[in-house]
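We modelled the chain as a single entity of 200 amino acids. Its sequence is:
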Amino acid sequence: MALGKQAKTLTQKQIEVALSYLATTRYGLRNQVIFLLSTKAGLRAKEIAGLRWSMVVDATGQVGNSINITNAVSKGSNGGRSIPINRDLKQHLVQLFDQVSRDSRFDVHTACVITTERSSFASAQSVINQFAKWYSDLGFIGCSSHSGRRTFITNAARKISTVGGSVRDVQLMAGHSNLNTTQRYIEVDAECQRRVVDLV
């Protein structure tokens, strides 16, 4: 993917603005979960659409501490992975789970996390279209459904060494079979480059 064609990453301020905006939309909580699955878990649109509650809840039937993506909903045979759940994302998932599990027809084994007004599941294209509308409404130029994923990978790559990890850990969370793919996702920071040169 050419650098000029990559989706723009989001700043922390943009993430906060987007969450505030989404809270005002018709399905605010669901929409915030979609957004956070992208920005705080790095999921692809296809994975957001295919995510089931069985991949999120633990053995006690409550929202757990990791998202367990299967190959079936991911990209290819190597996309399956376990991603620790960010605290903000977990808070929203717990609220949504409490809301949807009250329905007597709810089945944790088959129910999708993201549903639509007319269907018990969402398509990848509908998720892509939602992001396009939200970013257009917010005036976020150059952003797409891939922006959240790039933001997650970039932020994780910048901070992973502070907790004793490496880019290899980021690669596994991203579900990339090749480390080079992960590296292409990471937004470069000219200021960081300038500072590190002074330390060499």
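As a brief sanity check on the tokenised model: The radius of gyration is 17 Å. Strands lie at 66-69, 81-84.
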